[in-house]
């Protein structure tokens, strides 16, 4: 105890204790606050890229995956279907994909990186309905032309798209189906939602 009656050891102990308790209180307040600023696992998953195994997709088969809460179709086209795409230009609104509905690497007749595979968001560009995949020869139940070569038909308002997701003339849909960013990790795996490694 000092001459003026103050116990400096006790004061030092109380000051240190108050500082520690205050620090713990601040930390207990800041940690939950900072945690609210980071997106939840569900929110991260909605926007996160999706890795897809395409190994088991047969010719003329459509695989559905979800990305950003939207349906994404991966269609494996046969050689005949791929070859026929170049013959439809006169019937299509945007045959050369001039409207910005796809990344630069999909701005071709196939609207894809590899002609065999088409990757598109499965929502009609008219009002966001989900078109039906209709293979060649199955157009009659939908009232499609006899020479239907396969593609996508939106029964809600009658929009038609070819097997590259290009919109036909004279239908309500204004633009081609959207091609999302994607890249191939290997011959059997792709990532939808990330094309940072694609050149």
Main beta sheet: strand number and arrangement? 3 strands, antiparallel
Task: Please report the first level of CATH classification, the CATH class of the largest domain.
Answer: Mainly Beta
Low-confidence stretches: none
Class of secondary structure makeup:
alpha+beta
- Tally of helical segments: 3
Rough outline: elongated
What order do the helices and strands follow? HHEEEHEEEEEE
CATH architecture of the largest domain: 3-layer Sandwich
Question: CATH-wise, what's the superfamily of the largest domain?
Answer: Rieske [2Fe-2S] iron-sulphur domain
Whole-number radius of gyration? 29 Å
Helix content: 10-25%
Largest sheet strand order: 1-9-8
Total beta strands: 9
> Beta-strand level of the residues, as a percent range?
15-25%
């Amino acid at each position: 105890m000092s001459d003026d009656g103050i116990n400096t050891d006790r004061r030092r102990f109380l000051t240190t204790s108050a500082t520690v308790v205050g620090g713990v209180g601040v930390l207990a307040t800041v940690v939950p606050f900072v945690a609210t600023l980071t997106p939840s696992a569900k929110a991260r998953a909605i926007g996160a890229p999706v890795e897809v195994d395409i190994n088991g997709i047969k010719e003329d088969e459509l695989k559905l995956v979800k990305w950003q809460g939207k349906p994404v179709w991966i269609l494996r086209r046969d050689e005949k279907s791929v070859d026929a795409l170049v013959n439809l230009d006169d019937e299509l609104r945007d045959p050369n994909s001039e409207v910005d509905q796809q990344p630069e690497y999909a701005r071709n007749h196939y609207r894809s990186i590899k002609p065999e595979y088409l990757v598109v968001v499965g929502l009609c560009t008219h009002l966001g309905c989900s078109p039906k995949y209709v293979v060649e020869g199955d157009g009659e139940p939908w009232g499609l032309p006899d020479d239907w070569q396969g593609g996508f038909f939106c029964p809600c308002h009658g929009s038609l798209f070819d097997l590259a997701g290009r919109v036909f003339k004279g239908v309500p849909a204004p633009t081609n189906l959207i091609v999302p960013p994607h890249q191939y990790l290997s011959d059997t795996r792709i990532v939808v939602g990330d094309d940072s490694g694609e050149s």
